[in-house]
Specification:
heterodimer, A: alpha/beta, Transcription Regulator spoIIAA, elongated, B: alpha+beta, Heat Shock Protein 90, globular
């Protein structure tokens, strides 16, 4: 191996380590749910993101903006595989736009040749929630899995 | 020209009332009403599918009031309410009725009516496409609404949106929306 090749390898390794470091330094987002806002678990080290519960705030932008900004950072150094679990009981139309913004960040990660998978959970017989998942699936180019929760 | 908006509302809100509210629509009030109604629907063992639909439509109709009501006319009895609205949930034979009433500026009536007409003249598939189009192309407005509330209500209920406008004075009209939520869809 020539010195030039060796330097290039070192450079690549360093860059990769820098990227890993950048991601592992990202603080996870953990927010407990309230009657109007969902539980959030975004963990950059595991590459697993979860939105769960009810999302019906009057001002949804205020709630979702930090999440979208966080994903914007994660997007620069994503893991090879990112799993997203959406397990919502209710969400309002104002949240639906913010959730789309979340998905758009995931789409960018997927477009950059990383695995992204969305698991869209809906309760048995909740056709409205299934349809909502299908809406996103038709807009966003990321693989969706529709999972019925049978009680 | 002005009239008693409460009487006008009562003539439209026909059924057995479960909850009635008149006054300022703020975030805490919305929370309380949602809690109360959810408890009530659980206590009467309403089927979960219809219960969820009612809850969804309630959220959208209350938040529509929150985001979109115009100021009350000068000389109106309640000058304190920043967001004056009337709201009622009623039990009817087929399910539930959600009725809302609020002031709109006369200059905004045409646009709102066109929106309602467009929704009412659309098939379920067209409403779904319209919903997706607005979701993907329209940003959240300065009023905080996403422009999707009425489309979502029509889509989830599968029913036409019954509505009424009555001119209150030269600047204002009173707008009532009468939504049937049943389990036929």
């Amino acid at each position: 191996m020539s010195i030039t090749h060796f330097s290039a390898l070192i450079f690549l390794l360093t860059t990769k380590n820098d990227k890993n470091l950048k991601r592992t330094n990202m603080e996870p987002i953990i927010i407990e749910g309230t009657p109007k806002t969902p539980t959030i678990r975004f963990d950059a080290k595991e590459g697993v993101f979860e939105i769960k519960g009810r999302s019906i705030p009057e001002n949804s932008v205020e709630f979702y903006k930090p999440l979208v900004d966080w994903l914007d950072k994660y997007k620069d150094t994503p893991l090879g595989k990112t799993t997203v679990n959406i397990r919502l009981e209710y969400f309002n139309t104002s949240s639906s736009k913010c959730i789309l913004d979340v998905f758009k960040k995931l789409e960018a990660i997927h477009k950059a040749k990383n695995d992204v998978e969305v698991n869209w959970f809906y309760e048995e017989d909740d056709e409205d929630m299934l349809e909502a998942g299908e809406d996103y699936e038709s807009i966003i180019r990321v693989p969706f899995k529709m999972i019925e929760i049978v009680e | 020209m002005s009239f008693d908006v409460e009487n006008y509302f009562s003539d439209i809100a026909v059924g057995s009332p479960i909850l009635y509210f008149k006054g300022n629509i703020d975030s805490d009030l919305i929370n309380s009403m949602l809690d109360l109604i959810e408890e009530k629907l659980v206590s009467v063992n309403e089927n979960p599918k219809l219960r969820k639909k009612v809850y969804n439509v309630l959220v959208e109709s209350l938040q529509n009031l929150y985001h979109h009501v115009d100021k009350v006319p000068e000389g109106f009895e309640d000058q304190v309410a920043e967001r004056f609205g009337i709201f009622s949930l009623l039990k009817v034979d087929d399910g539930y009725k959600i009725v809302t009433g609020n002031f709109v500026k006369n200059e905004g009536v045409k646009e709102l009516e066109q929106k309602l007409l467009r929704i009412n003249n659309s098939t379920h598939e067209e409403i779904t496409e319209l919903y997706k189009f607005i979701l993907n192309h329209q940003r959240i407005s300065s009023k905080g609404g996403g422009g999707l509330g009425l489309v979502d209500i029509a889509r989830k209920t599968g029913n036409k949106l019954e509505y009424f406008f009555k001119e209150y004075d030269e600047h204002n009209s009173f707008f009532c929306l009468n939504i049937l939520v049943d389990d036929k869809k």
